[in-house]
Write a structure and sequence with these properties.
- With about 400 residues, this protein is an all-alpha fold.
- The chain has a single domain, classed as Up-down Bundle (Growth Hormone, Chain: A).
- It contains 17 helices and no strands.
- Helix 4 (about 50-70) packs antiparallel against helix 8 and helix 10 (about 205-230) runs antiparallel to helix 14 (about 300-310).
- About 40% of the residues are buried.
């Protein structure tokens, strides 16, 4: 919805300034996510996973209601831009606890091999949400349906989700770890320690680094897929805002199919093998991408490029459950949410603002400066988790 919202809530400017404003509006959703991760991570690790997803869903609903009733820039001026940016920040904060809370919840209540498709299904739900939003945006732009209906629908879904999540049960892993911590506290064996005191509860810094590098991949691919090519399609091939939204709607639907295939494969093929294969293809593709973009002659070429980015993207599914389980239970919500949020905040700022200047100075070859290091780091992280998975399986054959 960003393309449509920027036209409604931000002033019209020259193309360069418009690109920076668009980047600011896009990044505002992610920059404060690490703070939300700390808040909701604390709630999740101390009160419970269930409380986190209920609170964050209610926040999402409230921000949707505000955006559904907010006057546009033409009606109230720059105040509209600030309010919509604040709403995006609230959505970013709440989605942080909601998404990672769901990942952690599913990781803790399922066992392999069911864990891999079960946790990855959250990615399908997220992509379906994006597809639904783009579908509504397509109806708005193609058939002049009121754009506010998208946010009323979102608010309604969030309210229903909040009520439904009150029926969730807390995860056994969290209950067991909290019970152990309480016993230690009462016995006063380890003061001011929220862990069980066992060696396995120590956070490994190398694991945290690998977790961070894994989740740096998705923002780069997301930006390439849904944002980077929009100016090319609009300036070179005459795409309108509605054309861009419809194009992204088609990509989101293909993404749903792609995620579904990955989930199916993860039940039969070890997830880390899938990620190793995809990242190898992505690295090869990125090596030729600048040259390919320079030699496009029609918009179908761009669509093929976007499709290839989608099917080879650096992403965590279907191995989310593997990455999350290597973080100690009573630090899991805080650590995973914070690192997940931090990776997105950093990478969306780098891609959104950095690529504006890199591609201006170096052409499309400026993509290499961002994409290649991220890809290499991602590939190292996958191999690191593969190594510690082997070690953990030897230590606990069951």
């Amino acid at each position: 919805m960003a393309v449509l919202l920027n036209e409604l809530f931000f002033p019209k400017t020259d193309p360069h300034t418009a690109a920076l404003l668009s980047s600011f509006a896009f990044c505002s959703t992610f920059i404060l996510r690490p703070f939300g991760a700390l808040v909701f991570g604390y709630i999740g690790d101390n009160i419970g996973r269930k409380a986190t997803v209920i609170i964050t869903t209610m926040m999402m609903s409230t921000s949707c209601i505000i955006m559904a009733t907010l006057p546009t820039y033409a009606q109230i001026g720059i105040s509209a831009a600030w309010i919509v940016t604040i709403c995006r920040i609230v959505q970013g904060l709440s989605s942080m606890g909601e998404v990672m809370g769901a990942y952690v919840y599913m990781t803790e209540i399922t066992k392999p091999p069911l864990r891999y498709p079960a946790v990855s299904f959250i990615s399908i739900a997220s992509t379906l949400g994006a597809s639904a939003a783009l579908g509504v945006a397509t109806l708005v732009t193609k058939f002049d349906i009121n754009w506010r209906s998208a946010f009323w629908i979102g608010a309604g879904i969030a309210l229903v989700g909040s009520v439904a999540r009150t029926r969730l049960r807390e995860t056994p892993d969290f209950i067991e770890s909290k019970a152990k911590a309480e016993i230690k506290r009462k016995k006063k064996l380890e003061m001011l320690v929220v862990q069980s005191g066992e060696k396995k509860e120590t956070v490994n810094r190398k694991t945290i680094l690998a977790f961070f590098l894994i989740y740096c991949g998705n923002p780069v691919c997301f930006y390439l897929l849904y944002i980077f090519f929009n100016p090319i399609l609009m300036s070179k091939y005459g795409f309108s805002t509605s054309d861009i939204i419809f194009n992204n709607f088609l990509l989101a639907n293909i993404d749903v199919v792609s995620c579904s295939i990955l989930i199916f494969l993860s039940y039969r093929i070890y997830p880390l093998k899938i990620l190793k294969f995809r990242s190898s293809l992505f690295l090869i593709f990125m090596a030729f991408l600048p040259f390919i973009i320079e030699n496009t002659t029609n918009f179908y070429h761009i669509l093929v490029i976007q499709f290839l980015v989608l099917v080879t993207a650096l992403d965590a599914p279907p191995a989310n459950g593997i990455f999350i389980k290597h973080i100690p239970v009573l630090k899991r919500m805080t650590a995973t949410s914070f690192i997940y949020a931090l990776s997105r905040a950093i990478m969306y700022v780098i891609t959104s603002f950095g690529l504006v200047y890199l591609t201006e100075g170096l052409g499309y070859y400026g993509l290499w400066i961002v994409v290649i290091p991220v890809t290499v780091g991602y590939m190292w992280a996958v191999r690191y988790f593969e190594k510690i998975e082997k070690i953990s399986s030897l230590a606990d054959p069951a």
